[in-house]
Amino acid sequence: DMKLGGLGPDYETIKEKVSEKLKQQKEYAKQIKEHNMKSIYSVQRLPTKPQVRPPVSRQKALEYAKKIPRPKTFTAIQSDEERKKEEVKKEKVLPQTLNGISLPQVEPLETLQSRYEKEKQIVAAFRTLHIL
Fold first, then answer.
1. Interval 49-59: pLDDT, tens
2. Considering its fold, how many domains does the chain have in total?
3. Residue 80 is assigned to a structural domain of this protein
4. What is the rounded CA–CA span in Å between residue 109 and residue 116?
């Protein structure tokens, strides 16, 4: 359906073609929207799997720290045997001089000997280095 004999474009036929294209686009958009809505509902109905994330370095460090045994502190609760030993040490009478002044408690011979051996090794090491 073309009209011959006119100069320039025919605006009426162009308007009709454009309006048909717009109707087709709107119809297509409605179909896509309905399809997407159906697919969204079907996806939501499926059970979701928990996502497994690799642990962050901080979390790894915290888990590692939990597994390491803590060192024993000096303020820890003492056992009954240690308490008895301390009580026995306290009960010992300290030696006194003629004036009545008490002398300090002397360390056991074994600890003094071990200390002497350690210091002897240290001095020998210094002598090999020609420091003394």
1. 667 777 688 88
2. 1
3. no
4. 10
